[in-house]
Design a protein that fits this description.
Blueprint lengths: L3 E7 L20 H15 L3 E11 L9 E9 L5 E10 L3 E12 L7
Antiparallel strand pairs: 1-3, 2-5, 3-4, 4-5
Length: 114
């Protein structure tokens, strides 16, 4: 597989169920919600693969509900013919980096599992 890039934008609604407890009166989008967005993009784009590992995740800036969020995922070949690496970056306007990380995906077998 050759290197490729996926990009999208999204917004987390102020009604998201994770926000009331994170933090009451001053909602901040939890990192796990950002990770779910990355996973969703990967699962839609690479249906023949499964996410097997989160090798890195770093959260560097707060994301608030209703902010426009940009996601860029760089797909790199793995060390073998079975895996690929997905290096991702979440940014806000003016290229403020909020989170970065990397997932490893593995090709499913014909029955749909690893």
């Amino acid at each position: 597989m050759e290197k490729s890039v996926l990009s999208s934008t999204f917004m987390i609604s102020k009604e998201h169920p994770a926000l009331p407890g994170h933090f009451p009166g001053h909602p901040v989008v939890p990192g796990v919600v950002l990770l779910e967005q990355v996973e969703q993009q990967l699962q839609e784009a690479f249906q023949a693969y499964e996410i097997i590992k989160l090798t890195q995740a770093k959260f560097t800036h707060l994301v608030l509900p209703e902010q426009r969020i940009a996601l860029v995922i760089e797909i790199l070949p793995g060390a073998d013919n079975i895996t690929i690496k997905a290096k991702w970056r979440v940014t806000l306007e003016q290229d403020i980096v909020c989170a970065t990380g990397q997932f490893v995906l593995a090709r499913k077998n014909e029955e749909g599992s690893l």
